[in-house]
Amino acid sequence: MNIRHTLTSTVAVAALAAGIGTASAQENVKLTFLSGFPPPATVVGAFLKGYQPAVDAQLAKTGNYKIEWNLAHSGQIVKPRGELEGLENGLGDIGIVVTAFHADKVPLYEISYKTPFTTTNMDLITRTTKKLEGQFPQYQARWKEFNQTSLYPTGSVDNYLIISKSPIGGIADLKGRKVGAAGPNLPWVLAIGAAGVQTNLADAYNSLTTGIYDNMVVWAQAAGAFKLCEPAPYMLHADLGAVQSNILNINLDVLASLPDEVRKAIVDNAETWHVANEKIVVGAAEAMLNRCRNEFGLKETRLPEADRQAWAKAMPPIAKEWATTLDKDGLPGSEILGIYMDAMRANNEPVLRNWDRE
Question: What is residue 24's predicted lDDT score, i.e. its pLDDT?
Fold first, then answer.
């Protein structure tokens, strides 16, 4: 997408017309933000309430540039899953790519999905991923193939749980049930005999209501924000863990065309997006649970620890298999897995299974 800059200083025009000299003109830069998801999705809300104001504030310090934001979220330009292609083709300039939907294209970002029962510290996962991006050029090299680059990763999940339309108390209750899940979550539920149904958050309410599936792998903030506990008022706290699943990306042609000061503001404030997002996810978890309790009569059960251990052991060695496949493709899968798990252990996270070893 071509960036169009427009001079918009009525002060300058008036000054010139009056013959009193030249005033500096502020340059407007048009940028289109795209996401298939609406603002209740924390990563979109964090862009609108955290990142965008931070970029604007940095540019306002000099007054040389102002961004005219076209905020094309909620599927205005692309539907969920369409963000990567939309940025690649220039339908938008900057946007949020959900890496969970593109494991075939950016497989290195799958690591937290291959290591459940490891941590509920979403910030640690995100910052570990950011360090890996800096350590291994293969991350950005893969994005370059799609004419974009990563500005910062984040998650939207602090701790996965299960919601259900009927009572649920343990992993035995899930056997044979239809369970909605994002693609990378499907091996988790298949391991305990459930029938996994691939889905996304935007479709979840209707899918639960119509019976496409009767259970879903989700997280507290989303369960309340999207009212998923209305059709599915039973909740199993399974402590499956947090994941990194979103990337704030910008089109490479757009980034190269930006004035230096604007480019710096776009890059400098990327971490602000993650910080704002994590605050929303973690801060809203209990509030959204209370919404489910108060408005929809949520009934909660905690998965027994013996079941959690049995669930972790029931899974095949999904992390080692993932790493080995990447190794064969010339990517440093095993090295990345080892560094990632070392980071979790070094931070004394409640690692239930050492995925790089078994």
Answer: 63
